[in-house]
Amino acid sequence: MNLSFIWHMHQPDYRNSSDKMQMPWVFLHAIKDYYDMAWMLERHKELKATFNITPPLINQLKLYYEKPHENDVFLSLWMQDIPNISQTDRIWMIKICKSTPYETMVKRLPSYEKLYNKEHYDNSEFFDLQVLFILAWCGEYLRTNNRVVDSLIKKESNYNQMDKELLLGELSRFISGIFDYYKSLYNDGRISISTTPLNHPILPLLMDMNNATKANSSTNLPKQSISLEDDARLHIQRAIELFEETFGFTPEGFWPAEGGVDEKSLTLLKECGVKWVATDEAILFKSLNSSQRRNLYAPYNFNDVCICFRDRKLSDLIGFTYRYWDASKAAKHFLSNLASINEEDSNNSAFVILDAENAWEFFPNNAFDFFDALYANLEQSHWCKTLHMDDVIKLASKPLNSLAAGSWINGEFNTWVGHREKTRAWELIYLTKRDYNRHVLNLKDEVKAKITEHFLFAECSDWFWWYGDDHFSDFASEFDTLFRSHLIDIYKLMNVSAPSDLFNPISKNRSSQDFWIKPKSHISPPVNGVKDSFFEWLGCGVVDESKLFSTMDKVRGPVSKILYGQDDTYVYFAFESNIQELYECDTITVIIEPIKFSKSIKFSAFIDGYCEEKFMGISIEISSRSIMEMRIDKSFIDLDIVEFRFEFTKEDNVVQTLPGFGELEIDLKTNYNKNWFV
């Protein structure tokens, strides 16, 4: 039988807008896993495998080739004199240094274990903790083949600045040779190398969010989704360009991020020259409407693209089970499972696909003992042949008439959409994209190029992985901040005031409980720019914009409160503000979605007076004296539920967007048996 390993290597993009790494995990996995995984295979001369290397990993790894401390926040602090490190940074560094798995990595270095269990550190102990943390992450290749790493491990304590400089220089040189090592193995025919769309996006969700409900009908979808097919194509094309620049040849295959596939995204991959993809067994079973496992063990062909389906049982044994087993026992158990597949049909091909970096820190000796035993057993078995994917696409394949939408997790997309936090993150992307499309014609090409990069970064699957309650990370807040920073930077580049929800952690977004009072009854206030009495707005809803801003935000805008409500004919808004500051604005733009209504009205038309404008059959009346009031005729709006937004512009710059949380969704047919909602 044939056995094909696909080792997937990926890290989220930790760079901020200044291209500086905000967390050190790429560096740490580089010294522990990326070289070691290929080296452990190469030691067994008869074996082959495929390594999938993602573009975010490629781009970030290159930042560590020279002067890594200048490109990484953690390493820049690591190289500083201890007294110069602030208390906040010191606490954060200790958090990082104590994030290492205890049983398998900390305890290997007795000095590290001793310090790990302390609560407080003097400067000397803190210095040693930093060095031992990096040494603990050094993989088996470095431990056994690098003199500097070996000598510093043996030193155990009392490290000095020269030790740090020597170690960091040595590790930087080591990292700079990783891709050259892969190229040499590829040229020798030992491995094939594939990649993933640029920033590891879930292609089917980018192209059509309805794929989420096709995969699981109970998924809660984001409101007002937009097809991001153009971005999806860019992710593929730029991944290919970066791969060619790095390895010197064109990739033939892709592991779509998280194994996410559907028919439309596969067609797009084919159009870009991709010859093979891999995904999970659940997709095959759904596509065939059959869970017969005998169907799993062959490559398939859909629309002239070769598809290989992951054996979940075999893959999960390696990823989750064997860490607890003796290496020899685990290797024999794996071979016995292969033997059962071979007994059914010696022409079978099994595909084992899993993360090639994050499991091994939970194995003894970074899984070296396990892989050494596994690969030795495979070499000795005359009935099992390992193939890389460049070999597999030459095999006969079975036709596949349809391809179900889904990912490697249960054949669904609920890991990346559905939970309130995940869905909200998508909604903020859509909101930002709509705002960008409204302003794009006024932007210079170089600005549009920068904005495109931020959109591509924000579409990475990893942000959505950490939102919600299905995965846990001590660094979820750091991920959250990085995600929102890309959308905030888009608004900065457009000279548009960003919605204030972008400044609040998504995972703790409870702001509506603090600033938002829902309407209690119908209202019909006169639109005359004067708040004649308390009673005319009695029962209205209130959005207190002054409570929406976090410490990250520095620009508030002129409007402090929005009052709103409706009767049978009109929707009403009032904007409480410093009236003189408000009058410095040039225009207000009224935006109603999803009817694509966008009407800009000059302040000069209604300051200290009244005006009426009509657009798309909808009448807007505005008056402003001591307060700015607005009435919108809803009789020509055919939908029950619409979303309102407002932009205040001064000298072609948008100085405030309202409401600050993004969009105010209103049920125009409400009878107040239920409240309005955001």
Tell me about this structure.
There is one protein chain. The protein contains 26 helices and 22 strands. Helix content is 39%, strand content 18%. The strands form four sheets. The chain has a seven-stranded antiparallel sheet. Strand 18 and strand 19 form a beta hairpin. The two termini are 56 Å apart. The protein is α/β, with parallel strands linked by helices.
Summarize the model shown.
The chain is of the alpha/beta class and 678 residues long. The chain is built from 26 helices and 22 strands.
Layout: helices, strands, pairs:
Elements: E1 2-9, H1 25-42, E2 49-53, H2 55-61, H3 73-78, H4 87-97, H5 102-106, H6 110-116, H7 123-136, H8 140-145, H9 147-155, H10 161-176, H11 178-187, E3 191-194, H12 203-207, H13 211-215, H14 229-247, E4 253-254, H15 263-271, E5 276-280, H16 281-288, E6 300-302, E7 305-310, H17 312-321, H18 327-344, E8 349-355, H19 368-380, E9 385-386, H20 389-392, E10 398-399, H21 420-439, H22 445-458, H23 461-466, H24 476-494, H25 512-515, E11 516-517, E12 541-544, E13 559-566, E14 570-577, H26 579-582, E15 587-593, E16 597-602, E17 609-615, E18 618-624, E19 628-633, E20 641-650, E21 653-658, E22 664-667
Parallel strand pairs: 1-2, 1-8, 1-9, 2-3, 4-5, 5-7, 6-10
Antiparallel strand pairs: 6-7, 11-12, 12-13, 13-14, 14-19, 15-16, 15-20, 17-18, 18-19, 20-21, 20-22
